[in-house]
Amino acid sequence: MKKLLIFFCLIATIKGFAQTETADKEAILSVLKTQEIAWTQNDLEGFMQGYWKSDSLKFYGSSGLTNGWQKTLDNYKKGYPTKEYTGTLKFTIDAITKIEDDSYYVMGQYHLTRKAGNANGVFLIIFKRIEGEWKIVADMSC
To answer: Whole-prediction pTM value?
Structure first.
């Protein structure tokens, strides 16, 4: 009888972990969807709300490493000055993988359809739950 009780407790615990991970992934996907919408509306500040607003934010792209939320926003504004350049953003998510409690990495593709010429690439971003919200703390896009 004890073995059966332990077995059911183990199953309930595993199911609880799976539900938590599913909820985490759904919340991360929600952040990415909000970013797609903001970008497509040429709202770069809104897009940046998905990032950790910290000088410790890391962004690694074709121009090298950028440190900090404000500098990352400034670079986006310089590279995407008008709606012709932001266009319509769509993400394709290839993997969301738990690193440890409260952090995941996301691998995917971005697709920009725009008047200034379409652009496509890949990314690897790291999300961390900070003060109850999922934020991107590191981004490598090319």
So the answer is: 0.86
For residue 10, pLDDT over 50 is answered with no
Pairwise CA distance, residues 57 & 52, whole Å = 6
The per-residue pLDDT for 102 is 96
Interval 46-67: pLDDT, tens = 999 999 999 999 999 998 999 9
Instruction: Annotate 73-82 with b (16+ C-beta within 10 A) or e (fewer).
Output: beebeeebee
Q: Which residues are paired to 129 by β-bridges?
A: 134
The answer to whether domain 2-141 has CATH 3.30.1130.10 is no
Domain boundaries, the chain: 2-141
Between the CA of residue 106 and those of 3, 28, 32, 58, 71, what are the distances in Å? 39, 9, 10, 15, 22
Q: Which of 35, 31, 4, 16 is nearest to 104 (CA)?
A: 31
* Spatial strand order in the sheet of 119-130: 64-67, 58-61, 133-141, 119-130, 103-113, 88-100
| Beta strands in 9-132, from DSSP E residues, in sequence order | 58-61, 64-67, 88-100, 103-113, 119-130
| Angstrom distance (rounded) from CA 111 to CA 114 | 10
